[in-house]
Amino acid sequence: MRVGGAVRAGVLAVVAAGVVGCGGLGASVEDRPDVLTTMGFGLPDEHATARVSVYRGKYPGIDLRITEGAFDEQQFLSAVASGEPPDLVYADRLKLGSYAARGAVEPIDDCLRSRGVQLSDYRAAAVRQVSYGGRVYGVPEFATVRVLIINNGPVLAEGIDPARVSTTDWSALAEQAGKLAVREGGRFRRIGFDPKLPDSLPLWAKANGVELIDADGRARLDDPAVVEALRFTADLVKAQGGWASFKAFRDSFDEFGAGNQYATGQLAVMPMESFYLNTLAANSPDVDVTIAPFTDRRGAPTTELGGQAWAIPKGARHPEHACDFLATMTAKDTWVTAANARRDALARQGRPYGGTFTANRAADEAIFATVYAPQGNRILDQGVPIVLGLQEKAFALPPSPAGGDLVRAWQSAATRVLTGSQTPEEALRQAQREADQAVDRIVGR
Amino acid sequence: MARTENRAAWGFLAPWVVGFLLFTAGPMLVSLWLSLTNYDMLKPPVFVGADNYRELFTDPKVATALYNTLFFTVLHVPLQIALGLALASLLRRAGRAGGFFRTVLYLPVMTPPVALAALFLLLLNGQTGAINEVLGWFGFTGPNWTTDPMWVKPGLVLMSLWTVGGTAVIYLAALTRVPPELYEAARLDGASPWRQFRHVTLPMISGTVYFTVIVNTIASLQVFTEAYVMFYGNSETAAGRDDTALFYVIYLFQQAFGSLRMGYASALAWMLFLVIAVITVVQVRVSRRLVHYEGEPR
């Protein structure tokens, strides 16, 4: 009897496990017609919360469900592959070309047309990032650029005029970097000039006259101008003490704290994303820095545009709601509302507002005409006009069907050169091979 | 009666059997099929025969990843065993404080691997880390553990010893089971402490050593979390990273979820399965000559 009971218990356990396991296969909340789900988006500040409030006010009947957290490629692609995608995905614009080529996101030309979204209002570089094969796959959101941030104290102490620090004359820059770097007893005390390798290789290549990806989405990594750019930047690091110590020292920076690398004098000059100006202004407002544009070898300001975009995944259950959402979130008036909310919230905390930089030119014009005003913060008062000026001059690499693989290929190549295991020619030749194979795998020969 | 007991046994086993078939054997078979296809998760798999397996032998990163993984295993396993045994021997002499020290030694094993990786990134920093600071007190200039290609893998081995407490506790259990009269007899025969260890302790705990060698070897060949978090987990850590910490499972993961090459990643997984199986078979063969089980004739 007891044995029979055990058998029944075992069978029941298996059946129960099966029932519990299959519980997710029935109709879910996401299937309801009034639900809208997002992935990769968070609500960290008023730029997000105020815009979401605008949407909720405009569409009160929609149950918006935001799964907060950074974009996770594995999670997203698994969701699409399993037929359970979110209605919207918020991801780095660099990745969109690859998702479009693989059919993981839907073209949204019709959606944008029906909601009256004018892509001509957007910066060309941002539109380029979200277009693939003649169709548009995403709506650009924020826009970041890179600027040179020069630490005046150490630079002046070495007898260099901060106004003369620039990326135009590479031999002068190498000389300045050598003078500004400080090492004691085998350890770094100060980095003179950080070229921000390997992630800034596209910027240095562009400054040398070439883009790492061509209009067809294929890599141009073994171009002599890329080789020259990589050699120059890797030599800058080598001359200051070598990659191993350089990177270990850089990794130790308290980048987002009051004891950041500029406040402590651990760094003299670096090209950095524009959002960092807000960080500096809030955490170490008294630090004495000069903000300057990154320039190409002819002296013309140049910078790479970065940021995210909204896209609608393949198989999204509510594409119409998704279309309403992305059109609302990126509209000029919504951005202005968000900028006002952000400025007021920062003011309540006694912190300066450094503007809201979007890929939407019309929105930026309204924000900087009506919301932003200089507040006597040296960092922002210098930086904001420079960032605004650079927005129009920024470039963006064309989308590639193998975008992630291409980035990995050139970053690995740059690192192999930095660690001394390959010459720039060898490393970039290998990277070109890897990149070609990756593109071929997706689009065929 | 026997039939009823049989049915009862199957009843108890059923949950495990169903779980094994659904969540282990099933996915393994699917992965075997996928290894013969091109599959990017978004379009149906396309059969390509043995192409993925052929590519394994021409892809230089496979050789690099295998080398890195074997390098780590060859350093990690002996050190883990030796240090675990040394700590267990000390614990055995700890007397009434043994319980306290056992707990303290085991605590690090419970640290989440991601937290451990984040902590060791700071400790191992070649310019400002605590480990080099301590080495500096003794006049040594420590290397750049996290950024110098020559020292990245030794640094990871050093970090892996953080969990040596788990092995030490297993050895402690084995050591307490060695009959004291064997030591007494050895001492009467004039055996030195080393000879007692070599000829009494080691043979008596050889079964446990064998177990820990097998388990640690398999775990080392699948090393992933700490190295991934430290060096490849996000764009900040991945940028500026060459292949010196590219372990086999990290490369497999990159191919699967970075390049969406599920077919190739499946072939990589089966290759690793084969490597682990071969190494385990060799270890089993060698153990027949070296491992002594109580009650078995030698």
TrEMBL record, chain A:
PROSITE patterns to which the protein is assigned, alphabetical: PROKAR_LIPOPROTEIN (PS51257)
InterPro entries: Bact_solute-bd_prot1, SBP
Gene3D superfamilies: Periplasmic binding protein-like II
Compositional bias annotation for Basic and acidic residues: 426-445
Annotated spans, Disordered: 421-445
Pfam families: SBP_bac_1
Transmembrane segments: none
Record-linked PANTHER family: ARABINOSE-BINDING PROTEIN-RELATED (PTHR43649), DIACETYLCHITOBIOSE BINDING PROTEIN DASA (PTHR43649:SF12)
The protein's name in its UniProt record: Carbohydrate ABC transporter substrate-binding protein, CUT1 family
From TrEMBL, chain B:
GO biological process, one term: transmembrane transport
ABC transmembrane type-1 domain: residues covered: 66-283
InterPro entries according to UniProt: ABC_transporter_permease, MetI-like, MetI-like_sf
Keywords of this entry: Cell membrane, Membrane, Transmembrane, Transmembrane helix, Transport
GO cellular component, one term: plasma membrane
Keyword Transport in annotation: yes
Membrane topology: Multi-pass membrane protein
Pfam families the UniProt entry points to: BPD_transp_1 (PF00528)
Superkingdom of this protein's organism: Bacteria
Transmembrane stretches, start-end: 12-34, 70-91, 103-124, 156-179, 200-224, 262-282
Gene3D superfamilies recorded: MetI-like (1.10.3720.10)
Key word Membrane present: yes
UniProt-annotated location(s): Cell membrane
Family from the record: Belongs to the binding-protein-dependent transport system permease family.
Name of the featured protein: Carbohydrate ABC transporter membrane protein 1, CUT1 family
The organism of origin for this protein: Actinokineospora iranica
